[in-house]
Amino acid sequence: AQKITQTQPGMFVQEKEAVTLDCTYDTSDPSYGLFWYKQPSSGEMIFLIYQGSYDQQNATEGRYSLNFQKARKSANLVISASQLGDSAMYFCAMSGANRGNDMRFGAGTRLTVKP
Amino acid sequence: KAGVTQTPRYLIKTRGQQVTLSCSPISGHRSVSWYQQTPGQGLQFLFEYFSETQRNKGNFPGRFSGRQFSNSRSEMNVSTLELGDSALYLCASSLRVAGGPDTQYFGPGTRLTVL
Questions:
Q1: What is the chain B residue with the closest CA to A40?
Q2: Which phi-psi region, left, alpha or beta, contains residue A100 (left: φ > 0; alpha: ψ -120 to 50)?
Q3: What does the pLDDT profile of chain A (115 residues) look like in tens digits?
């Protein structure tokens, strides 16, 4: 079975500072993908970044980077230079290569950026 | 390129009624997945359609059904609505790359309220 755990229900960060959102996972799939999504209050899920289980390097997308530690089964999201618009719910998700698009989500972390 | 669109954005129904939600994927995407989001259960996978065929199904009762048309547009139907069906229903589309996890792009969601 696949499981995603996000242990931080809420986080605060000062504008322009960096913040790390934690995500650990458990899976028996040999090949899988890890995703981070942002959900503003409007409700739409916005794709941020993807890491494949066989990728050697950590994924980066602009101000977002994914700190992937396969042995520890963790896939933390790092947001650099936080902006007020980064305030939102952030979800870590996983899908297995053999499970189609059945994606499992964590409970989410609510990030609040303070001016 | 236009994103995933969902209609309607908001719905209010009463118990026992049925409802149909619609999703138009990103042009060129052939896979459409549906998710239910509630405060209590979080984000849960309902089902995935690819090439007009249901490829995966989550753990939901048979009252939840869907279909996909030849143009990849998808509809989701919920019959005999219950109060617990009140949720944000999110549709996601993807290319459905063979042999690997697929990045899913979400629509704005349909917020269903059952009275």
A1: B108
A2: left
A3: 789 999 999 999 999 999 999 999 999 888 899 999 999 999 999 999 999 999 989 999 999 999 999 999 999 999 999 999 999 999 999 998 777 788 999 999 999 999 9
Residue type at position A104? R
For the CA atoms of chain B, what is the radius of gyration? 13
A10 in B contact zone (CB under 8 Å): no
Cβ–Cβ gap A105/B42 under 8 Å: yes
pLDDT of residue B99: 64
CA B25 to CA A104: how far, in whole Å?
Answer: 20
**A31, A44, A100 ranked by CB distance to B106: nearest:** A44
Calpha distance B26→B35 (Å, rounded): 17
- Give the one of B35, B42, B109 whose C-beta lies nearest to A44's C-beta: B109
The span from the CA of B54 to the CA of A24, in Å, is 30
**Residue A93, min C-alpha distance to chain B (Å):** 10
Which has the closest alpha carbon to A31: A99, A106, A101?
A99
Instruction: Report the gap between the CA of A82 and the closest CA in chain B (Å).
Output: 23
Q: Do A44 and B92 touch (CB under 8 A)?
A: no
Helices (H), chain B: none
